[in-house]
Amino acid sequence: MVNVGVMGTGYVGLVHGAVLSSYGFRVTCMDVDKQKIERLNQGISPIYEPGLEELLQSGLRAGNLVFTASAQQVVQTSDVLFIAVGTPAKEDGSADLSYVWDVVQQIGKHINGHKVIVSKSTMPVGTSRSIAMYLDGMLRGTPYRAHVASNPEFLRQGKAVSDSLSPSRVVIGAESDEAVQMLKKVYATHLEQDVPFLFTNRETAEMIKYASNSFLAVKISFINELALLSEKVGAKIQDIATGMGMDDRISPHFLQAGPGYGGSCFPKDTQAIVDVGRKNGEELYVVRAAIAANEKQKAKMVSKIEETLSFDGTLKGRTVAVWGLTFKPDTDDIRYSPSYEIIQGLLGRGAAVKVYCPQGMKQAKLYWTDLNGRIQYCGSEAECSQQADAIVLMTEWEQFRAANWEKIARGMRGNAFFDMRNMFAGDASVLQWFKYYPVGASEYGYPLREAQ
Ligand SMILES: NC(=O)C1=CN([C@@H]2O[C@H](COP(=O)(O)OP(=O)(O)OC[C@H]3O[C@@H](n4cnc5c(N)ncnc54)[C@H](O)[C@@H]3O)[C@@H](O)[C@H]2O)C=CC1
Ligand SMILES: O=C(O)[C@H]1O[C@H](OP(=O)(O)OP(=O)(O)OC[C@H]2O[C@@H](n3ccc(=O)[nH]c3=O)[C@H](O)[C@@H]2O)[C@H](O)[C@@H](O)[C@@H]1O
């Protein structure tokens, strides 16, 4: 049986390790964050991801999932090592590969046999080859070899476990038979399940990851631009998306207009590929436009609220209830969430801001320190809306569907409802109580009630 090592236990590494342990592999997960490792050893997941804690606990119980802060242990006990550390954006948009290189150095230092090293983190084209060259250099004069492959991850947060169990595809960029054979063993279950596999070279695998994320970002920015136009010309963006999506060359997916994309990946990966383009003398105009349109979208959402609610050109004296802080539902991740910029915009225009999020409050208090003392955190969507002039729904959490609209509306001072996700478009129970402002349409099939 293959011994698997995972370096970095974030959204990708932890889920990958836990899923592989559920297939019976002995998996050692390593992280430099000792507190995280301690919690993991107690069976507590440091992140909110549906189904993860159960997998974690069963792996620990079965004894085939081990957590350690020791790089030596993970390197020496594993036949295959997945690098799953963060690759965040630097100030200039390029990918910060310092965590990747820390890990590679640890591998080079502790290596005690032939190993397959797999880049699972999203890394600019050429990184896996550089890692291979670096390790070859370090291993010169030893009997050991490192076979480096690129195996990008395509999971979505909030669906990380189910995406890992049933991925859309497995892309393997490898240039040695040892690496290919090892990854076929690791992904034997997926091969049996007829998950599509693509074997290619490392550069192509790395590019597929950036190309996929950038293309999805382009799709979102495209529909968001059309949403802004639709509001002006009396068209409805949801019907436009449906109509476009009926053509299977376009597909209906990722055409959901909203407040702009966020998260730890689209914003950084679009910037990183533009940076790679520039460094190689190829300006990526389409991706650049998607980034610019995304910034415009967030700013437009703030202007829309301001234009609707202001009496004297500002939002002074207005209270806004923001529902949802995470960049999408079913995650506790607030990284690059559009909620942050919308809250900043509202505060900047003088509004008082109350917020509620089913999972994002802990992270927001911890990381959005500049907002501490400037916004009011609330225990529920109902409490958040008390005495507010408007609700701004930023994240489409399912639990919002169960809200008691009459009670919420009666507890408010005003009745504006900005639905940045079109979650309640055409929902009579919401339209009955609120003046409803969707994204990309002036109305959705029901007459709007005038403000009281
Ligand atoms: N979050 C997501 O949904 C997806 C992320 N990715 C990519 O996967 C990579 C990881 O992303 P996340 O899991 O979100 O990151 P994360 O920030 O959640 O986790 C990274 C982990 O690496 C650890 N770490 C840092 N330096 C280390 C070192 N020297 N040795 C061991 N551990 C170390 C950190 O303590 C942290 O726990 C990134 O390149 C990202 O672009 C790819 C697909 C999906
Ligand atoms: O590389 C990554 O990290 C991952 O990035 C995204 O996954 P994720 O960031 O978890 O979330 P998405 O569901 O893609 O949503 C990203 C952002 O786009 C927004 N979005 C998405 C879809 C849509 O139609 N409209 C829209 O505004 C979401 O609200 C969210 O803010 C990709 O979907 C994954 O395939 C990829 O592995």
TrEMBL record:
Stated name of the protein: UDP-glucose 6-dehydrogenase
Family matches, as InterPro entries: 6-PGluconate_DH-like_C_sf (IPR008927), NAD(P)-bd_dom_sf (IPR036291), UDP-Glc/GDP-Man (IPR017476), UDP-Glc/GDP-Man_DH_C (IPR014027), UDP-Glc/GDP-Man_DH_C_sf (IPR036220), UDP-Glc/GDP-Man_DH_dimer (IPR014026), UDP-Glc/GDP-Man_DH_N (IPR001732), UDPglc_DH_bac (IPR028357)
**Matching Pfam families, A to Z?**
UDPG_MGDP_dh, UDPG_MGDP_dh_C, UDPG_MGDP_dh_N
Tell me the route in metabolism or biology where this protein functions: Nucleotide-sugar biosynthesis; UDP-alpha-D-glucuronate biosynthesis; UDP-alpha-D-glucuronate from UDP-alpha-D-glucose: step 1/1
Catalytic reactions of this protein: UDP-alpha-D-glucose + 2 NAD(+) + H2O = UDP-alpha-D-glucuronate + 2 NADH + 3 H(+)
Q: Which SUPFAM superfamilies match?
A: 6-phosphogluconate dehydrogenase C-terminal domain-like (SSF48179), NAD(P)-binding Rossmann-fold domains (SSF51735), UDP-glucose/GDP-mannose dehydrogenase C-terminal domain (SSF52413)
What organism is listed for this UniProt entry? Paenibacillus glycanilyticus
Domain (UDP-glucose/GDP-mannose dehydrogenase C-terminal): give its ranges: 321-426
Name the protein family: Belongs to the UDP-glucose/GDP-mannose dehydrogenase family.
UniProt entry tagged with the keyword S-adenosyl-L-methionine:
no
Organism's domain of life? Bacteria
Query: What is this organism's lineage?
Result: Bacteria, Bacillati, Bacillota, Bacilli, Bacillales
In short, the EC number is 1.1.1.22
Coiled coil ranges (UniProt) are: none
List UniProt keywords, sorted A-Z.
NAD, Oxidoreductase
